[in-house]
Amino acid sequence: MSAPQTNGNRGAANRPLVICEEVSKFYGEVLGVNRVTLAIPPGITSLVGPNGSGKTTLMNLLTGLIHPDRGSIRVRDISPREPERMMRLTGYATQFDAAPRWATGFQFVATSLELFGLPRAEAESKAWKALERVSLTDAAHRKVAGYSKGMRQRVRLAQAIAHEPDVLVLDEPLNGLDPLVRAETIAMFREWGAQGRHVILSSHVLQEVDVISDQVILIANGMIVAEGEIRGVRDEISEHPSQYIIRCRDASRIASLLFNEDHITEIKLNDDRLGMLVMTRSREDFSRALGRIALDGHVIDGVIPADENVDALYEYLIGGGR
Question: What is the per-residue burial (b if ≥16 Cβ within 10 Å, else e) of 194-228?
């Protein structure tokens, strides 16, 4: 697949990029990421992969929290080995709580801004503005230790955006958010990307990626599986059979009936014989076949599409090995 492209009036050569060249990181004998080469344009980019695929390692490398054993990284022409410049350039919201137990949400964000050398009054003004953007002003003076999961997620995001960075790096930023706040947060990401900034976020939910992203990077086993505009990666996925999980009373009999259908490519029976994973080249033909089987008196308790599961996606793209 070709390198990601974005819309815009400026030529590709003039766009600020986040660049990885043959980047590898090992933890002893454990591989973090392996020979990653990327040129990420401005806009919203999703890093997609199951737990342990290398997403967090890559984000830590991009923000300078760790450094590669091999290869080089440039974030808008700045090296992550320049911590002071990187701190001003990037905002990083991890999944881990970083606020001291004594701190209120307002204190946590304002104190973080004072580390940039801002006068207290300016730091407090920017902190309040950031909390407004994530709809957390009502809880600003409560201790973070008493926040719900969604509120802790929002205060970490406020801390990441408070200094108006050009590069936002966000680890599963929509986890725990209610639908309204979720929509507001996605709108903020789009606004940030439309301003020519980078928003690089991780996700394991394909529906989120479809809604949010300009481009997507699929990671498995520390390596890039596919990357490019979301439509192009979707087209690549669509070349593979669709997967469904069927729960039923007589799996062996229903499996034998499905095997007579030309569009069925593979069936894997569950060990309990009460269900199966079915792969089909045609969703429409599969639906009609299930209808006929049900009308013949066979009991089907449920049908769940497996395509939105990231593990199923990787089975498509790399043959099941992760």
Answer: eeebbbbbbbbbbebbeebbbbbbbbbbbbbbbbb
Pairing of strands 242-248, 275-280: antiparallel
Six-digit token pair at 29? 């004998």
- pTM for the model stands at 0.72
User: How far apart, in whole angstroms, are the C-alpha atoms of residue 275 and residue 303?
Assistant: 10
Cβ neighbours of residue 231 closer than 8 Å, sequence gap 6 or more: none
Q: Which residues pair with 90 in a beta bridge?
A: 167
CA separation for the pair 31, 34 (Å, rounded): 7
Contact (CB, 8 A) for 41 and 194: no
DSSP one-letter code for 256: H
CA-to-CA separations, 19 to 65, 106, 319, in angstroms, rounded: 16, 34, 28
| Residue 243, phi then psi, degrees to nearest 5 | -120, 140
In angstroms, the CA 140 to CA 151 distance is 10
Encode pLDDT of 158-179 as tens digits.
999 999 999 999 999 988 888 8
**Rounded Cα–Cα distance for residues 243 and 306 (Å):** 5
Nearest to 73 by CA among 61, 91, 59: 61
pLDDT tens readout for residues 230-282: 666 656 655 566 778 898 888 999 999 999 999 998 898 987 778 898 988 88
**Phi, psi (deg, nearest 5) at residue 270:** -70, 155
- HEC letters along 222-238: CEEEEEEEHHHHHHHHH
The residue that leads in pLDDT, 190 or 312, is 190
Query: 10 Å Cβ neighbour count for 26?
Result: 15
Is the separation of the CB atoms in 220 and 213 below 8 Å? no
User: What's residue 239's pLDDT?
Assistant: 57
Region of poorest pLDDT, from 220-234, 264-278, 283-297: 220-234
- How many Cβ atoms sit within 10 Å of the Cβ of residue 230? 19
**Quick one: CA torsion of 188, 194, 198, 199, rounded to 10 degrees?**
30
